[in-house]
Write a structure and sequence with these properties.
The chain has 353 residues and is α/β, with parallel strands linked by helices. Helices cover 48% and strands 9% of the residues. The chain contains 15 helices and six strands. Strands 3-2-1-4-5-6 form a six-stranded parallel sheet, sandwiched between helices. Helix 2 packs antiparallel against helix 3, helix 6 crosses helix 11 and helix 7 packs across helix 12. The longest helix has 20 residues. The chain starts with a helix and ends in a 9-residue tail after the last helix. The model has no long low-confidence stretch (mean pLDDT 96).
């Protein structure tokens, strides 16, 4: 895709007739109707996305959007920005938490440098930086609107490439020191919430550090005055390149008819922003877990989604969404292997009014 307009115009709703077929398939199985709850809903949604009542999203990819954030200079993080690219290098060596979890979930993990301060050296890192780090949002915008749109298109085109390579499902993830600050700033603006309410300790801030973080976000919103009704304006002024890249992944997955899993707070904020740009894109998203970041539940609520996992996770890197894949796999396993009412010689349940 060459333009944001072209990308959005190419997004179609999911196939609801196929979804009805999938529900009928579930109801033909020997178990209490809708007894598997979210597992059944997820399979039906994936069927509608893939345009078949027998979906097999077997080839999965985790796309990690890595970027640095200029606001780190305000002392809003426990570590410095050098950690961002180092973690991407570790992902290249298959050493990170997300990589270990991806192995068990049968996923390929691809670290993407969409805005780190330096390019990655490992051959597995995709160096696609729109710019090397964002501006300090306390002093001015994170990036230009043009850079924001380029980052969105970068994410979308990467998903298109994954589709062409045979992948069936996308897991979103991010890596960027300072990105709970930018995502909290976006959430405060988008949902008209007090900064204190939407801001947490990220990767382990002290109380003093949390106070600095809150002050920095307040100042950034005051300085930049982002328009809460304009997704690109919000991202470019108080967001980050990892957020923009994930927005592109969501739009790209919808364009390519691929299920895409939402990870935690940062990923969910990105999902909401993608939904602002194209409401139909939300039909391709599946929530997986609710992060312990303070506003995580709020973002999912505004997305109109409920996450099945509440496991106290807040690591990022797509780890919660990778965990969610295990539930989806159990749903698909049940969908294809539970006996039918006839096969099990049991009288079928009927839906009660």
């Amino acid at each position: 895709m060459n333009t944001l307009e072209e990308l959005i115009e190419g997004i179609e709703p999911v196939d609801r007739e196929v979804m009805e077929e999938a529900w009928k398939n579930w109801d033909s199985l020997c178990k209490p109707l809708r007894g598997l709850g979210w597992l059944e809903e997820a399979v039906v949604k994936i069927a509608g996305i893939c345009r078949t009542s027998c979906p097999h999203p077997d080839k999965r990819v985790v796309l990690i959007m890595g970027a640095d954030n200029g606001v780190v200079e305000e002392g809003v993080t426990q570590t410095d920005s050098s950690v961002t690219i180092q973690v991407l290098e570790n992902m290249g060596d298959r050493l990170s938490t997300a990589c270990v979890m991806s192995n068990l979930a049968n996923c390929e993990l691809i670290p993407v440098n969409i805005g780190c301060l330096t390019d990655g050296k490992h051959p597995r890192i995709r160096n696609m930086a729109v710019r090397h780090g964002t501006g300090n949002i306390v002093k001015g915008p994170a990036m230009t609107k043009e850079e924001c749109i380029r980052a969105i298109l970068t994410g979308a085109n990467l998903v298109k490439e994954m589709k062409e390579a045979g992948y069936d499902l996308v897991v979103t993830g991010e890596m960027g020191i300072g990105n709970t600050t930018t995502s909290s700033a976006c959430a405060a603006v988008l949902f008209d919430q007090d900064v204190e309410y939407v801001t947490g300790r990220g990767a382990g801030l002290s109380s003093e550090g949390l106070d600095r973080k809150i002050r920095a976000i307040k100042k950034a919103i005051q300085v930049n005055n982002p328009d809460p009704k304009d997704a690109v304006d919000v991202i470019s002024k108080v967001g980050g390149l990892d957020i923009a890249g994930m927005v592109g992944c969501y739009l790209g997955a919808a364009h390519e008819h691929m299920p895409i899993l939402i990870d935690g707070f940062i990923s969910a904020v990105s999902a909401y922003l993608a939904g602002m740009l194209c409401p139909a894109a939300k039909e391709y998203m599946l929530a997986t877990h609710c992060s312990t970041e303070p506003a995580a539940h709020l973002v999912l609520e505004r997305l109109g989604m409920e996450a099945p996992l509440h496991a106290g996770m807040h690591l990022g890197e797509g780890t919660g969404a990778i965990m969610g894949l295990s539930l989806i796999d159990q749903g698909l396993n049940a969908y294809y292997h539970i006996a039918t009412w006839d096969g099990a010689h049991v009288e079928a349940y009927e839906h009660q009014v």
